[in-house]
Fold this sequence. Notes:
Layout: E1 2-8, E2 16-21, E3 29-39, H1 41-48, E4 60-61, E5 65-73, E6 85-89, E7 103-107, E8 111-113, H2 120-124, H3 127-140, E9 148-152, H4 157-168, E10 172-177, H5 182-188, E11 191-194, H6 200-208, E12 215-218, H7 223-231, E13 238-241, H8 251-256, E14 259-262, H9 267-271, H10 275-290, H11 308-316, E15 324-327
Parallel strand pairs: 9-10, 9-12, 10-11, 12-13, 13-14
Antiparallel strand pairs: 1-2, 1-4, 3-5, 3-7, 3-15, 5-6, 6-8
Helix pairs in contact: 1-11, 3-4, 3-10
InterPro entries: ADH-like_N, ER, GroES-like_sf, NAD(P)-bd_dom_sf, YIM1/Zinc_Alcohol_DH_Fams
GO molecular function, one term: oxidoreductase activity
Pfam family, one: ADH_zinc_N_2
Amino acid sequence: MSMKAAVFTAPGDPLEIREIAIPSPAPGEVLVQVVSSGVNPLDTKIRRGQAAHARVTPPAILGIDMAGVVVSVGEGVTEFRDGDEVFGMVGGVGVLQGTLAEYVTVDAALIAPKPRSLSMVQAAALPLAFITAWEALVDRAHLDDGAQVLVHGGAGGVGCIAVQLARSRGAQVYATGGPASQAAITAAGAVAIDYTSTRVEDYVQKYTGGAGFDVVFDTVGGVTLDASFTAVRYDTGHVVSALGWGTHSLAPLSFRGGTYSGVFTLQPLLSGHRRAHHGRVLRQAARLADAGRLVPRLDERAFTFENLEAAYDAVENGTSHGKVVVRIAPS
């Protein structure tokens, strides 16, 4: 039997819709019928050939996030059965098949039961963003109740989720963004800071009395990470970045006595190590969503295989109004 899939054939070229064979689950895997596939900025960078760290060689099927229905399970899988609704960050990097296909085989450790309160489209918008935010704020920064947290890029896919996660853990949350992002940041539950009109020194003074934020989470990179080093609290503050890939001076952070760590969410997919941690984190996402404390911000346009290039263009050009999700099958 065959399935429809979007194939990445060469950097910069449109994705090509092809009929290919439906894969079979190996031991420890499940076969999922994909209902929705989330589109991340990383997906567009891979298509442009600008994400060497993702280790994708064409031809390949892209798509990292998904929500769908289990249709068969491989040997040794006991936690899922046919008909289960699941979601996860499961492929589209390294040698793993991506989610822009009608079916995908996935390591059962990487997925979790879909939140009951969310649609398939909403669930597909969560995995990479939530796992990144959790690893930054919980695993690395050990976020405590009452902490003052600054999220750079609070209206972005990861930033919006990070704001909600930090609030769910009792933090006082502030987030930066441009003028067009202020309403979205406020709606997510953070104090909005317009970085284009407010100096770092000024908002650190206004909101922390000059002491600095307990945790600064950078989702932007570049000069924004440099700004993070001067916004963190003296002695006990921690900066964590999802895009700390450039060359930066640690002197400002060192003079404040702060600490730094990085997050590379793709590592379990690429290496095969600690994949079960992703599944456990997604169960926390489902718990928060079903408690009404986690809601993804979606682009309401309907994207399918037929207008897939429009979905990628919306993410690549920054014209989306929330997370872009491609509908693969009726939900």
